[in-house]
Design brief:
This protein has two helices and six strands, in the order αββββββα. With about 120 residues, it is α+β, with helices and mostly antiparallel strands.
Length: about 120
C-alpha cells in the first residue's frame, strides 16, 4: 500500500470503497462507484482512478480517469478535454485532463484532491 495513513483513514471514514493498485511501477488509486452530480451525466456512478505520482503527497496528482466513460446530459457528449481513452490496468479509462498549480505540499491530500474532482464535475461543460 502506498497511500499515507491519513488518506486511507479519510477514504475509510467517508465510506469509499477503494483499492490501491500498482502496475508497471505506477501507483493507482481506484474509488469504486464514485457518485456523479445528479442529472448531469449519463450515469449516476462511475469508477474513479487517480494516478498517484512518486513523491506523493509532496507531489500533486495531475489528472483523473473514469470507467466507464461519462457523458454530459442531455446531449450525451464528452465534457471539454475528456474525450481521450487510455488503457490502464487492462481497461479503457476516460481521461479528465485537469491541471492545478495550487497544491500545498504537506497540507493537501485526497481530501482536497477529491474536492477538486467534485468541483470539476459540477462545472464541466
Amino acid at each position: 500500500m502506498f497511500l499515507p495513513e491519513f488518506d486511507r483513514d479519510y477514504l475509510t471514514e467517508k465510506g469509499y470503497t477503494f483499492e490501491e493498485k500498482v502496475e508497471s511501477n505506477q501507483n493507482y488509486l481506484i474509488i469504486r462507484n464514485w457518485s456523479l452530480p445528479k442529472d448531469q451525466y449519463n450515469v449516476e456512478q462511475s469508477d474513479l482512478l487517480i494516478l498517484i505520482p512518486r513523491g506523493y503527497p509532496d507531489v500533486k496528482p495531475d489528472m483523473w480517469y473514469f470507467y466507464p466513460a461519462i457523458l454530459l446530459k442531455p446531449e450525451n457528449r464528452y465534457a471539454n478535454a475528456t474525450n481521450y481513452m487510455q488503457t490502464i490496468l487492462g481497461e479503457k479509462w476516460q481521461r479528465w485532463s485537469r491541471h492545478s498549480n495550487d497544491w500545498r505540499s504537506g497540507i493537501d491530500g485526497m481530501r482536497t484532491y477529491l474536492q477538486r474532482v467534485q468541483t470539476a464535475l459540477e462545472v464541466a461543460r
